[in-house]
Specification:
alpha+beta, Penicillin-binding protein 1b fold, Penicillin binding protein transpeptidase fold, 4 domains, 5-stranded mixed sheet, 24 helices, 36% helix
Length: 731
């Protein structure tokens, strides 16, 4: 008894529930004009545990074509409580139209409850939402005692008469058909003992129950029971306590449960697997109705209330509201970002709420593009060995909206988006030319650069002779053309001219933190990076030279909603916006005339894009990085064994990237012309100003003062000007 007393007091007194951290997607904001498709809205509602129904009950929605009626549940966000509302809206051309609040507090904008996309769990894999007895619906403990332990507040831990009655029933049946355990005994069994059906264990259970009641009051024991009881399984984690069970089975807060829902949860205490309402609905319905009858007998429900409740369906959500980590690759990045500020033991046991930047609709489009495109790439045995990664960010903020770590994104494992360090090939070229264009007295977009072979001889006798991908030489070409068509020889020549160290410094300025080997081969992309690093680097090009650190977390709160950490937008100007604007122009040319133009087989031609292909030797790595007005995406395709694929950036990664871009509503890239940049009509072959209607005329940006100082005229200019004037009348 002395030993058991020490066990009970030390474990119960010092026991701290290990509550996993919960990771949420960004909340979907709905308002007049919000950008969202009807399919994406329905998918997000489902992901957040909304049920398709009448749109009146909280947590339900009704859809009729493009018309939605949504009844929200309310949610506690870091900046305050979002109340329950019922809203009606129509989706037209991927935008919210005719938005209005049907019931609830008026507001021009609402936030839906964010989907929980995962959790960070303790090693024992138990999951729970802690509840306090005073906040629990009074009907729940009353029903629990009516079914499991009617004399809970009157016994001293065990109920001898109940035990005797159960023993007699078991002896008559020749097997265990009835239990006589009190709620206290059930709690002791869960907290301290094994489930072995032995006399010694039962004796210890009885003694420890008496001791527990001796030291602690009934409400403490009951509250602990409500948080501890096992009520189901979600993959490898257990659903403990009524707080989480309410969310798991109904997608609803415990305080909002109806009597028939409470009856189902209480009925499941007897056998969570046997009465699982998703797997065994008939069995669960029969058990629930039995509990409702007990509630009627004990006066908890009137006869009419009980009859009405028995006539209701189970009302369980189609999918578990809180399931296993849905996006393991993304959660992996979240954990790494959190590791800068939090210990692992706090993440897995302190019940933190982590609000991320993940956009479920963008994530779904990214996963679909990888899953559907990869089987169509390559040939023969190579096709089955191909892998891919895709990183999507918000162009202006650097928020990571989606991340795919492999061709089977639902499975955890090697995360290629974070851990596959591969040579980036021609993705380095925009940064070579940015280094050059930052010196406008030496380089402009129309500067002639040599596409001619050459040999470098090193002091140790080694020779290096770079070649173009197609093994051709074109003599002198304008710089913008060299970038748009990804010629190797001009890029190396320009890089050597401005200096390998200068190019390496440009990469570091744009967020590359790993060491860079400062050899000439680096100018052809021999430097290895992960897709996430490439996204970080290209973020600066998309934002006109402002380095914006990628972020996955907006805010972290404790279990009660108190803010612990905020992760605001950080911006650091690392390059001259004028020079970056010139590179953006050339990257738009990549899509319109160069190596990226096949994207428009998939993407609408009206969508203005900027991007760059990347290929390494034998197609071992196929890359594409590019952006629209809203999103930046980086795609990689290759093999885990680093074998050849014969794919280029245009034939491998670009189809993955294009399929993604075609699936999401967005705006085209329309760069703002910075101060100090002017556009001029030029003849880029002759490096001279010319007239708009002259042959070979091109409208090109220049940093002020670097534009050509000579002009070339053309015959027929007046006639073409008149033709252009008439043409303009009818456009």
């Amino acid at each position: 008894m002395v030993y058991l007393d020490a066990v009970v007091t030390s474990r119960f007194e010092g026991r701290r529930f290990e509550v996993p951290s919960r990771v949420y997607a960004r909340p979907l904001e709905l308002y007049e004009g919000a950008s969202v498709g009807a399919g994406a809205l329905q998918q997000e509602l489902s992901l957040s545990g909304f049920r398709k129904g009448d749109g009146v009950a909280p947590g339900s929605y009704r859809r009729s074509g493009s018309r939605f009626v949504i009844s929200t549940r309310g949610f506690r966000f870091p900046d305050g409580e979002e109340p329950r509302r019922r809203v009606a809206l129509t989706i037209r051309d991927d935008q919210v139209d005719d938005f209005r609040i049907v019931s609830g507090e008026s507001s021009p904008i609402i936030r839906l409850e964010p989907a929980q996309i995962g959790g960070i769990y303790p090693t024992h894999r138990e999951d729970r939402i802690l509840v306090q007895l005073q906040n629990v619906p009074k009907l729940l403990p009353a029903t629990l005692m009516a079914v499991e332990d009617r004399n809970f507040y009157h016994h001293f831990g065990i109920a001898p008469l109940s035990i005797a009655r159960a023993m007699l029933a078991n002896l008559r049946a020749g097997e265990i058909v009835q239990g006589g355990s009190t709620l206290t005994q059930q709690l002791v069994k869960n907290l301290f003992l094994t489930r072995d059906q032995t006399l010694l264990r039962k004796a210890n259970e009885a003694l420890m129950s008496i001791l527990l009641e001796w030291h602690y009051d009934k409400d403490d024991i009951l509250e602990t029971y409500l948080n501890e009881v096992y009520l189901g399984q979600a993959g490898t984690r257990s659903i403990n306590g009524f707080g989480l069970a309410s969310q798991f089975y109904f997608g609803e807060s415990l305080k909002n449960l109806k009597p028939h829902q409470i009856a189902l949860l209480v009925g499941m205490v007897k056998g969570p697997s046997y009465y699982n309402p998703r797997r065994n609905p008939d069995r669960a319905l029969k058990r629930r109705n039995l509990v409702l009858s007990e509630m009627e007998k004990t006066g908890l429900l009137s006869a009419s209330e009980a009859a009405h409740a028995r006539g209701l369906p189970l009302g369980v959500s189609e999918k578990p509201s809180y399931s296993e980590n849905r996006y393991p690759a993304y959660i992996d990045l979240v954990r790494r970002h959190l590791a800068r500020d939090y210990r692992e033991e706090d993440l897995s046991s302190a019940g933190l709420r982590i609000f991320t930047t993940l956009n479920p609709a963008i994530q779904a489009a990214a996963e679909h593009s990888v899953r559907e495109t990869l089987p169509r790439l390559g040939h023969g045995d190579v096709r089955g060995k191909l892998e891919s990664a895709l990183v999507v960010t918000a162009k202006d903020t650097g928020e990571v909206l989606a991340l795919v770590g492999g061709k089977k994104p639902e499975f955890a494992g090697f995360n290629r988006a974070l851990d596959a360090r591969r040579p980036i090939g021609s993705l380095i070229k925009p940064f070579i030319y940015l280094s050059a264009l930052s010196q406008p007295d030496r380089y402009t977009l129309i500067s002639p650069v040599k596409d001619q072979s050459f040999v470098l001889e090193f002091d140790d006798g080694r020779r290096w002779e770079p070649k173009d991908y197609d093994r051709k030489e074109r003599g002198e070409v304008p710089l913008h053309q060299a970038l748009a068509h990804s010629y190797n020889l001009p890029a190396v020549r320009v890089g050597l001219d401005v200096g390998v160290d200068v190019v390496a410094q440009t990469l570091q300025d744009f967020g590359v933190t790993s060491s860079i080997s400062r050899y000439p081969a680096m100018l052809l992309g021999s430097v290895s990076m992960t897709p996430v690093t490439v996204a970080q680097m290209y973020q600066g090009l998309a934002t006109s030279g402002f380095n914006t650190p990628l972020r996955t977390i907006r805010e972290v709160t404790d279990a009660h909603g108190k803010a612990l950490s905020r992760y605001p937008l950080e911006v650091d100007q690392v390059a001259d916006p004028s020079a970056v604007h010139l590179v953006q122009y050339a990257m738009q040319e990549v899509m319109q005339e160069g190596t990226g133009q096949s994207a428009y087989y998939t993407v609408p031609k009206s969508l203005s894009l900027a991007g760059k292909t990347g290929t390494t030797d034998d197609g071992r790595d196929s890359w594409f990085a590019g952006f629209s007005g809203d999103y930046l995406a980086v795609a990689w395709v290759g093999r885990d064994d680093n074998g050849p694929t014969s794919l280029t950036g245009a034939s491998g990664a670009l189809p993955v990237w294009s399929r993604f871009m075609a699936k999401v509503p967005q705006h085209g890239f329309a760069p703002v012309v910075p101060d100090g940049v002017g556009y001029h009509w030029v003849n880029d072959q002759r490096q001279a100003l010319t007239d708009e209607y002259c042959e070979n005329a091109r409208y090109v940006p220049f940093i002020t003062g670097s534009e050509p100082d000579r002009e070339v005229s053309c015959s027929g200019a007046l006639q073409k000007r008149i033709q252009g004037w008439f043409k303009g009348l009818f456009e």
